[in-house]
Design brief:
The complex is a heterodimer of chains A (112) and B (113).
Chain A lengths: L3 E4 L2 E5 L4 E7 L6 E7 L6 E7 L4 E4 L2 E6 L4 E6 L8 E7 L8 E2 L3 E6 L1
Chain B lengths: L4 E3 L2 E4 L5 E6 L6 E8 L3 E9 L2 E5 L6 E5 L5 E5 L8 E8 L8 E2 L3 E5 L1
Parallel strand pairs in B: 2-11
Antiparallel strand pairs in B: 1-3, 3-8, 4-5, 4-9, 5-6, 7-8, 9-10, 9-11
The chains are: A mainly beta (112), B mainly beta (113).
Chain lengths: 112, 113
């Protein structure tokens, strides 16, 4: 069935360093790949997304890359700040509206 | 613009009881999706409603049900509660056309004793 694997489960970096989170999806028909940030006590918030017709997308310090052949996509955060500390989720879907398949999450800790 | 509103935020129930959770989507959004979040299983899709019709359904037992009203507000119901139903239940709304951004509420945290 549909599955999204996310690594690592925890990631600790020093302020100013870069952080990379990787995901692999199983359904080759997947065509939309959002990334969500969830802070304690809050719901997930979309931070960036990419569609299957694009290989890379960047928004300030955040970028996402997609390799359709390998069925991999990654989140890159540069110049990390303490406020980037949160749980990050990748997801994938195949034109199924509100149905997203989420990865297990990465707890990112940015140490000042 | 008001975000997605979920009520109640916290509730405690006992095994065998039933619970109803409510979700008010962002104004203009016609799709409401529900997710269950637990430490062990992560975020799992329950179902999606669009224009009062269930458009998608996840792999949950029939004890989990939902509905959507003409104003796009949605409710989900869990009957005959089990300990394993303890979770954060998240509602997300979207315009509903194609595949686009989901806006999540802050969730309803259900504890089953």
């Amino acid at each position: 069935g549909e599955n999204v694997e996310q690594h690592p489960s925890t990631l600790s970096v020093q302020e100013g360093d870069s952080a990379v989170i990787k995901c692999t999806y199983s359904d080759s028909a997947s065509n939309y790949f959002p990334w969500y940030k969830q802070e304690l006590g809050k719901g997930p918030q979309l931070i960036i997304d990419i569609r299957s017709n694009v290989g890379e997308k960047k928004d300030q310090r955040i970028a996402v890359t997609l390799n359709k052949t390998a069925k991999h996509f990654s989140l890159h955060i540069t110049e990390t700040q303490p406020e980037d500390s949160a749980v990050y989720f990748c997801a994938a879907t195949t034109n199924q509206g509100g149905k997203l398949i989420f990865g297990q999450g990465t707890e990112l800790s940015v140490k000042p | 613009k008001a975000g997605v509103t979920q009520t109640p935020r916290y509730l405690i129930k006992t095994r065998g009881q039933q619970v109803t959770l409510s979700c008010s989507p962002i104004s203009g959004h016609r799709s409401v999706s529900w997710y269950q979040q637990t430490p062990g299983q992560g975020l799992q899709f329950l179902f999606e409603y669009f224009s009062e019709t269930q458009r998608n359904k996840g792999n949950f037992p029939g004890r989990f049900s939902g509905r959507q009203f003409s104003n796009s507000r949605s409710e989900m119901n869990v009957s005959t509660l089990e300990l394993g139903d303890s979770a954060l239940y998240l509602c997300a709304s979207s315009l509903g056309t194609g595949t686009g951004e989901l806006f999540f509420g802050e969730g309803s945290r259900l504890t089953v004793l």
